[in-house]
Amino acid sequence: MSEVRLGIIGVGNIGRHHANYLLDGKVKRARLTGLCSVIPQELEPYKNRGPKLFGDADAMLKSGEVDAVVIATPHYQHVTIGIAALEAGLHIMVEKPIAAHKADAERLIAAAQSRPDQVFAAMFQLRVEPRYLKLRQLLNSGDLGRIMRVTWINTDWFRTDAYYASSGWRATWKGEGGGVLINQCLHNLDTLQWLMGMPQSVRGFCHLGRYRNIEVEDTVTAYMEWAGGATGTFLSTTGEAPGTNRLELAGTRGRVVLENDRLTFDRNEVDAEEFNRTTKSGFARPDTWRIEIPFGNAVLPHATLIQSWVDAILDHTPPLVAGAEGMQSIELANAMLYSSLVGETIRFPLDGAAYEARLNQLIAESRFEKKVVKTGADDFEKSFRR
Ligand SMILES: NC(=O)c1ccc[n+]([C@@H]2O[C@H](COP(=O)([O-])OP(=O)(O)OC[C@H]3O[C@@H](n4cnc5c(N)ncnc54)[C@H](O)[C@@H]3O)[C@@H](O)[C@H]2O)c1
Q: How far, rounded to the nearest angstrom, does the alpha carbon of residue 38 sit from its chain's CA centroid?
């Protein structure tokens, strides 16, 4: 095979974005040959543009027109369609989150593991943003010393009631399985664990529908502890404007802050613990040097991940983000919410079956009536956050 024939299942906000750069030829050795949506109007603009159009995922999977599919449907269908695609012998790129909850993610990962020749990748485009790559490099180099604290104020996910009303599945237990954690913050939670590793425990405090007319969480405060002694807090909401996106990592060798497109490293001249051991002064503190770390922005980061998946299929190289790596962010999101629901600290690994049972109970008890009102022509790409 010298070229991968790609299909996209789900041609909503993100499916359209993938379709457009693929049709613009931004991914080499790949051709968009299929598009699938259960909403016929979404397919209209793609008539006579090359790809074959499908109103049903199964029909595309069995059509023989595609070698690989990008799954860009609501979260629960990532698993059902993902497993069906694997069973049809196709490679899969699954949008984030790879599932709505941990037990479902395990089902998808198990199905992929039993077909090692098919490439399962996941869409976590922040992994190719230079700002996070630089932060990771800094952490891995040991330049920050022993990490003591991470604080992520991640409240610039402002969303309106019109956004929530725009489709039936959004922000419902049944359609999405959660709110700001499993949707908007998932990229940040993935980045957090990619930088820091998984914490050993979390205590979450979530408010359901506090600022918006939704039944799931729109506001979160979580406290985490890592095995190495670091502690952390993660805050998010879709109700705050102007929001804040400030990531601070404090180590014994200094503190790094990422905010407002600046990455600033205040580096201790002497490790703070060594300073403490050796100084005779009660109020002295280590001198610091301020270092501004320059970085650019990734160009078409989603296309970069698709390219790495296509390369993995053709060249048998690993994709940038293997599908199974989609588990950790789901486990963090689920545990923050579960902790709040049961009023307890959760130690990892999360009990996926217990969480699934609780989610099913929320679905069964839901009395929330959603009135869907389609929004106009919003510029979806404005929603991307770095
Ligand atoms: N990586 C990113 O930057 C990013 C950005 C936005 C959304 N997402 C993820 O992409 C997914 C879709 O989000 P969206 O905002 O595009 O949703 P959307 O509601 O705009 O679009 C959903 C699409 O799925 C299709 N669909 C639903 N059920 C289907 C089925 N059974 N078979 C075939 N098609 C079906 C719909 O027809 C529609 O085309 C979500 O999981 C979301 O978390 C990722």
A: 24
pLDDT at position 376, please? 64
Nearest Cα residue to 122 out of 247, 309, 276, 255: 309
- pLDDT beneath 70, residues of the chain: 375-377
Q: In angstroms, rounded to a whole number, what is the distance separating the alpha carbons of residues 182 and 84? A: 23
The helix, strand and coil proportions of the chain, stated in percent and rounded to the nearest 5, come to: 35, 25, 40
**Residue 21 backbone dihedrals phi, psi, to 5 degrees:** -75, -25
Output the residue whose Cα is nearest ligand 1's atom 21.
12
Mutate to test the pocket of ligand 1, among 41, 73, 191 (most ligand atoms within 8 A of CB): 73
Return the DSSP state at 89: T
- Within 13 Å, how many C-alpha atoms sit on residue 163's CB side? 18
Q: Which helix (H) or strand (E) holds 292?
A: strand 288-293
Domains and CATH numbers, the chain: 4-125+300-322 (3.40.50.720), 127-297+329-365 (3.30.360.10)
**190-244, pLDDT tens digit by residue?**
999 999 999 999 999 999 999 999 999 999 999 999 999 999 999 999 999 999 9
pTM to 2 decimal places: 0.97
Of all helices (H) and strands (E), which one includes residue 7?
strand 4-9
pLDDT in tens, 100-134: 999 999 999 999 999 999 999 999 999 999 999 99
* Dist. CA 37 → ligand 1 center (Å): 9
For ligand 1, atom 18: residue with the closest CA = 12
The atom of ligand 1 lying closest to the CA of 78 is 41
Atom number in ligand 1 closest to CA 75: 41
Which atom of ligand 1 has the smallest separation from the CA of 38?
A: 37
Q: What angle do CA 219, 222, 225 make, to 5 degrees?
A: 170
CB atoms within 10 A of CB 50: 12
Please choose from 13, 70, 80, 129 the residue to mutate so as to test ligand 1's pocket, defined by most ligand atoms within 8 A of CB: 13
What is the 374 CA–ligand 1 centroid distance (Å)?
15
Ligand 1 atom nearest residue 80's Cα:
31
CA 333/CA 154 separation, integer angstroms: 14
